[in-house]
Amino acid sequence: MKKFTTLIIAVFALCLFAGTALADAKYIMRIGTTTEPEGHYHKGLLQFKEKVEQYTDGQVQVDIFLSSQLGNERDMIEGLSMGLLEGSLTSSAPLANFSPDFLLLDFPYVVTDREKAYKVMDGPVGQAILGTMDSKGVKAMGFWENGFRHVTNSKRPIVNPEDLKGLKIRTMENPIHQATFEFFGATPTPMAWSEVFLALQQGTIDGQENPLVIIDTVKVYEVQKYISLTGHFYSPAVFMLSKQIFDSYPADIQEAIVKAEKEARDWERAYSAQLDEQLVKDLTAKGVEINTVDAAAWKAACAPIYEKFKDRVNADYLKAMLE
Ligand code: EAX
Q1: Which 3 state secondary structure label does DSSP give 185?
Q2: What is the pLDDT of residues 259-273, one digit of tens each?
């Protein structure tokens, strides 16, 4: 309960200093994320903000809170379900703690082709998975992109899976992510994203894994020497609203929000997909040693993870993702 009191106080305090208030805003939508101002989530949410405020003629004001100001990803999802927060954009991995159907997206190398994956995520399978959050009080509206996740660490280049042996690697709080790193001999250390930079700086963990844009915008390169382009997991980012709050809006406001989210999602996916080429150059220039890996060999080495977890997900869904 203490966490939620903190959340309520944080939200209230931050609202007092939120961006310029729209004169005739009837509804304030606070949207939280753990990511940084220069990151892809924020740029996509600014598109959402602009569109919603335009499509509702200023009746809705969107205030975006970054850098885990409103709590970590699990806290924010809890906040949505309790009607304490209007919206959040988080990686899909923590959602497996609320609805096991999201585990489908957490298998290593289950996504290698974005466009094929989007067809599944935007089709009946993805919509059914998003719909499982309704009963938790969360309206999960769409799969945006966090991106392909790569391993960073302070000890050595990771070329083959066995190079992970003995390393303490922070993972998100997700059973398949943790099991995958454990399988390769690492010690998976799940923790909230806001705690990771300090843990890396203090050496309590050796590494972490995230898309390059997260690595760059949080300046992980300042405390990590190696980036290995494993692309081992593909992270969707899920745009979610509190269902009770969304349902309380008039129909025209709801329609405007649905339209704006779809357009902002398409914008953010396209923006995110073109970042990595330049980021490899930028991060190399910042002194990080970046190596590629044999993704086919890594993918083959992950077969036992599918054996271990395939019964935890809908077989038809897994087939749709892998086809
Ligand atoms: O969703 O926790 C993570 O590593 C996520 O990539 C981050 O919070 C953005």
Answers
A1: coil
A2: 999 999 999 999 999
